[in-house]
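subagent[fold] <- orchestrator: predict structure for attached chain, return tokens only, no commentary.
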Amino acid sequence: MRAMMWVRAMYNEIILTESSWWFCPLKCRSHNKTYKGLETSWRFPPRGWLKFNVCGVVFEDKAGGGGVLRDEGVARAFFSSPSEAKDAEFAELKSIGVALELYEGMGWATCCPLLIEVGSNVVFKWLLETESRAGKLHYFFAEIERSYLSFEKAEHMGNKMEKAEHMGNKMTFALAIAGVKRLDTFKH
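subagent[fold] -> orchestrator:
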């Protein structure tokens, strides 16, 4: 499973069929740019930027999160982690926190602007409109804003958030599902 996640993260243009992976890894590659009849829709970040796609899920009463950091399509880091969240939106917020921690810890916060792409409409609205946030999450939002705004004070000025297009966060969704089944956070 870890090898398949690594291949998916490192080579965005390769579409793997997970069901075939377990039987014959050499034959699981799909040679077209569509998956189950749908076009892939991951968008490249602006030149010189890094893009962190994040996702949170709840599956069978367990939550997990995942994220992939890319520059121009090449994966530079990814993570998969369990979460104590009770819903997918909070799991996605926790994933943003892990993504910011990873971004800062690897030293990119001072040299490259960051674009964070979320999959949830609710989380995206919470990030943009402070009055729409759930009251119990204010402390968590304060932590995200503290980290994120501290990056904006660096020379590059201009970190931003975006909403992922439909089917634009498939890799992070797979990492989040894997995170549900993990006992601890995996970062690479």
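orchestrator: received. Logging for downstream: Strands lie at 15-16, 29-30, 34-35, 38-39, 50-59, 62-71, 74-83, 114-118, 160-163, 186-187. Residues 27-40, 152-157 have pLDDT under 50 and may be disordered.
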